[in-house]
Amino acid sequence: MFSPVCPVDVRVLAPEAAKAAVRGWLQEPARLLVLTSPRRSAALNLAAFFVQLQGDGHAVQLYGDIPPNPSVTDVAALLTRLQAQAFLPTAILAIGGGSCIDLGKAVAALAPLLPAPSTDAVRRAIESKAFAQGGQAIPLFAMPTTSGTGSEVTRWATIWDPEQRRKLSVDHADGFPKAAAVVPEWTLGMDAGLTLSTGLDALSHAMEAFWAVARNPLSQELALAAVRKVVHALPVALREPNDLAARQALCLGSVMAGLAFSQTRTTACHSMSYPLTMLRGVPHGYAAALTLGSVMRRNAKAVPDMHRLEALFDDAEGFDAWMEDTTRGVQEMRLSAFGVTQAELPIICQLAFTAGRMDNNPIVFTEDEVMAILTENL
Ligand SMILES: [Fe+2]
Predict the structure, then answer these.
(1) Which end of the chain is less enclosed by CB atoms within 10 A, N or C?
(2) Which residues of the chain have pLDDT under 50?
(3) Residue 168 CA to ligand 1 centre (angstroms)
(4) How many beta carbons lie within 10 A of that of residue 217, not counting itself?
(5) What is the pTM assigned to this prediction?
(6) What is the reported pLDDT for 371?
(7) What is the pLDDT of residue 133?
(8) Spacing, Cα 269 to ligand 1 middle (Å)
(9) How far apart are the CA of 151 and the centre of ligand 1, in A?
(10) Among 272, 130, 113, 249, which residue's Cα sits nearest to residue 187?
(11) Residue 331 alpha carbon to ligand 1 centre in Å
C-alpha cells in the first residue's frame, strides 16, 4: 500500500519562463519576502525581476543573509528582523540551494506563530511542532539554483541546533512549497565542488529511497530513474560545466530523487552524515555520500532486489569505481580528507542515530557496525 503525495506545482523551465511562472503564481498583491544571496542575485541578473515583481503590486523585501546549514539562531535572526520592520510576509520566494529553501520553509512555518522569536523560542516551536496545528503556513515558492537538495518537493526543512549538537526538522503536512520553478540554465558553469557535493546529495536521496524500510514500488522506480540520470550526467557536468543536457539531467534527477525520498525519508547514510556536518562542517552531500558504498554492501543482505540498483553502476565497473572516477581531482571521499580523526569516531558514532533515519535502514545498525562503517571510510 502506498499513497504518493506531492502537492507541489513543479515546472522545469528556461529562465524567463520561470520568472513569468512565479509572477503568475503570485496573483494577489503580496508582502513578498525574497530570500537570495546578493551574490546569487547578481550572478543570475535578478534585479530586473525584482523590479517586475514590485511593478506587479507586491511589496518586496529582500533578505540576503543566507547561511549554509541554517540554525535555530539564523531563523530567529530573520524572524526578529521581519518583526522589527513590521513585515509579516504573505508569500515567500526562496531562490537558492537547499539551505535557502529550508530557511524559507522554517520562516513560512514559524513567522505567524512567534511574537518573540528568540533562539530558544524557535527551538521550542520546532520541537513541539507548534506550526503543525495552525495550518497558517505562509505560501512558499522555490527556485532551486543547485541540483541536489530536492527540498522543492519535500515537506521538511533541516534546521541545525549547534549549541545542543543536534539537527532539527521542521516537518509537517503543510510544509511543502506551493510551487517550484527549476531552471537548469541557472546551474550552468557551477563550480566542480558544488556540482559534485549537490549531485552526490541527490544520489544519496535516490539510493537511500531505494532501500529504505518505507520504500514502495513507485518510490523505487523514481529512485532508479534518478540514479540513472545522476550516474551518467554528473561526470559529464564535472568535465563540461556548461553542458546544458547534463545540467538538465541533473536537475531532473534531483527532482526525481526528491520525489522518491519525499515518500520514504532517508536512512543510515543521512543519519551518519549529520554529526559529520555539525562537528566537522563536511558539506551535506559529501557527508551523506561518504558511507553509501559501505551501507549498500551491507543492505544487500536485506533488500532482495538490490541488484537492480547495483546494475546501474555496471558500465563504470561498480559503485566504488564510479565514485572514485567521478570524484577524482575534485574531492577525496574519505573522512580524513575532511579533517576527521580516529579519535573523533566515537562521538560521531554516538550522534549518528537519528530517529526516523537510522531505523528506516533495512538493517538497523548497532553502534559497533556504525563504528566499522566509519572506520572503513576514514
Ligand atoms: Fe540530503
Answers:
(1) N
(2) none
(3) 14
(4) 8
(5) 0.96
(6) 98
(7) 67
(8) 9
(9) 9
(10) 249
(11) 18
